[in-house]
Amino acid sequence: MNLNRRFSLVTLAATILLAAFSAFAQNRTEFDRFHYFDVQHYTIRVSFDRAKKKVLGDTTVSVRSLKPF
Fold first, then answer.
1. 65 contacts 40 by C-beta, under 8 angstroms
2. Could you report the per-residue pLDDT of 46-68, keeping only the tens digit for each?
3. How far apart are CA 9 and CA 30, in angstroms?
């Protein structure tokens, strides 16, 4: 097996191992809380002013209530 292929396999194995450790380290109760809304759609409008080095834009989020208020 040539050196580049071996390095690629070692890098891939290390990446998978690191991802597995980080997935098991997360606190699941943080993600299991109840949400009162469901995001239906995101609309993001962006423009760039290269001369002034600025990013301009706005965002619209459409949501649906999951609980009657």
1. no
2. 999 889 989 999 999 999 998 87
3. 34
pLDDT 10s digits, 15-48 = 888 887 776 666 655 666 677 888 999 999 999 9
Q: What is the 3-state secondary structure (H, E, C) of the chain?
A: CCHHHHHHHHHHHHHHHHHHHHHHHCCHHHCCCCCCEEEEEEEEEEEEECCCCEEEEEEEEEEEECCCC
Q: What type of residue sits at position 16?
A: I
Token pair for residue 68? 């009657």
Strand 37-49 to 54-65 pairing: antiparallel
- In the block, tokens 């995001």 appear at 39
